[in-house]
Structures are given as C-alpha cells and as structure tokens.
Amino acid sequence: MNDVITEITPLSENDCFYLAERVKDSFNYPLHKHNELELNFIENGTGAKRIVGDSIEVLQKYDLVLIGAGLEHGWEQHECQLKDVHELMIQFPANLFSDSLLKKTQMDSLRKLMENAKRGISFDQSACEAMKDKIMEIFNTQAGFYRVLKLYEILFELSLLSECHTLSSNSFAYTTPLPDSRRIRKVAEYIDQHYRDEIRLNVLSDLVSMTPTSFSRFFKLRTGKSLSEYIIDVRLGHASRKLADSAMSIVEICYDCGFNNVSNFNRIFKKKKNCTPTQFRENYHHRKDRTGNYVKNESSIKDKDKFHKKKEIV
Fold this sequence. Notes:
The protein has helices at 99-102, 108-117, 125-140, 145-159, 170-173, 182-194, 201-207, 212-223, 227-245, 250-256, 262-273, 277-285; strands at residues 5-7, 18-24, 32-33, 37-43, 49-52, 55-58, 62-67, 73-76, 85-92, 121-123, 164-166, 286-288, 294-296, 300-301, 308-313. It is of the alpha+beta class. The strands form four sheets. The chain has a seven-stranded antiparallel β-sheet. A three-stranded parallel β-sheet has the order 3-1-14, with no helix packed on it. A hairpin with a 2-residue loop joins strand 5 and strand 6 (55-58). It is globular and about 60 Å long. Mean pLDDT is 89; it is low at 288-307.
C-alpha cells in the first residue's frame, strides 16, 4: 500500500554530493525517499507543510532540515501563498564519512549529527539565519576539493548547534535509540519488543534492579520523558508506520499497537501528530494539486522539478 516514490538521484558511487538551487512558486513534488542524505534549506516557504517520517510541521520563513537515507519526506503547498520560494538542496551519500572517521574523538558531534539524521533534524529559525549565508557559499565555491571541505564545514557547524530537534520517531524510522545508559538501552529494547502488550512499571524496574519510584525518576532524567510518554511515542511510531505501509484499518492498528480504546487512540494521535490517523494516511498516499484536489502519487521519479536554477554534481 506504500505509495511513497523512490527518487533516483544523479549521484554515482564516485560523486561526493549533488547541489541544486531552485526558485519556484509552489510545492508540487510528492512524498519520496532516496538512498542519500539530504540537507534542505528553504526561504519564503511560510505556511507550507513538511513531512519527515511521521513528523508533520508547518514552515515558518526559513526551513532547514537534515534528512537521513531512506527516510520518507516531502513538502506540500498547504497554506503557503508566496511565489518566490528559494530552495537550496545538498544530497550526499551515507558513506561520505567512514565509520572509522566518525569514531575519532574530534568527530563526536558529527557522529551524533549523522545518527540523529536517521530520524530527520529540523533547525530552529535562529539556526537557519546563522547558517543561511554559509549554505549559499557552497554554491559559489570552486567545484572540487574546496567545495567538499565547505560541506564538511557546514555539517560540522550544524553538529554544534543546540537550536534543533529530531523529527520522526525511532519506531517509524526503523532506528534504535542509543542512550548512554546501559539500563535505559535495556528498557528501550524491551519496550520496542513488547509495545503491543500491557507494559507494567514494576516489570521494567525489576529488569534493571531498581525500585519503581527510583526507576521512574531515573528514566525521566535520562530520556526527558516520563515512562508513559515514552511508551505512547513508541506505539504511535509503529501505528504511523502501519498507516503508511499497510492496508490495516484504523481499529486494527489501534489494538495491534497496544492501545485498548479507539477513541483514546484517535485523541492521542491527533494531540501528538496534529492530525487524525485518517488524515495522516491521506498525507502519505495522496498529495494535493494547486486546486486542492487529491492526486495519487507516482511510483518512481528520476528528477525533481522544472524549476532548477542551478544544479551540479561534485
């Protein structure tokens, strides 16, 4: 049932990255994924809707996201009325940084950036303004080695920014959280394996040899979420994936993901995702044309749109 298209990018195994600059008056490229990471900067996209994994957000003046390989993403017109949307896009392969390089001490922040990119990272407006000129510089830098260095510099500076947040849930993006705490990792693995079932606090606390009260405080301190919030997020991630990839009914998905009440599932889903499960499924299987009518997604595509101002492979 998954209608998300697979984009075939121009990159070959010998290329470092692909640059594209566009000026356009609409967001008309459907939800898609590709094997490369993508750094995407948009100016004047206020009111457009961005989908990354199971995250749906409405754009402000600037939008800067780093999207991991294979993660579904796309932008929709939504309420954007502007006609001078400026987009800068950089696509690069996952092996641009080798595993051995990322394990070096000096690469600690970059390693975390690449790990978080698997879920998609959105940078706040202040970060967008701070990075705007530097991202534009790469398009004017001499092609070749110096342009590669410029990309490394951009990614490193992004890795140092705290004004950002991850987008997709781990369970939707098929990623495993890697918390520093061995106890939290053990609990996270248990929850991911048993999200369909009733999960009791005392079972989890016994798993890590702590009292329920101490474990609850410890879990909140290490994850920033209460245990119940974390479990709900895991279940919603799996539910979102089933909405996108399967023909299961809303009711079936509700109970298959550990929720025991359909009304409660719908309420929690809308509160967390800002849309109902039905609307979320529509976002994944249809896109709206400029008249507001739904148009079925295509199955594959080799190039993005006709508004390219400049594009280069490095």
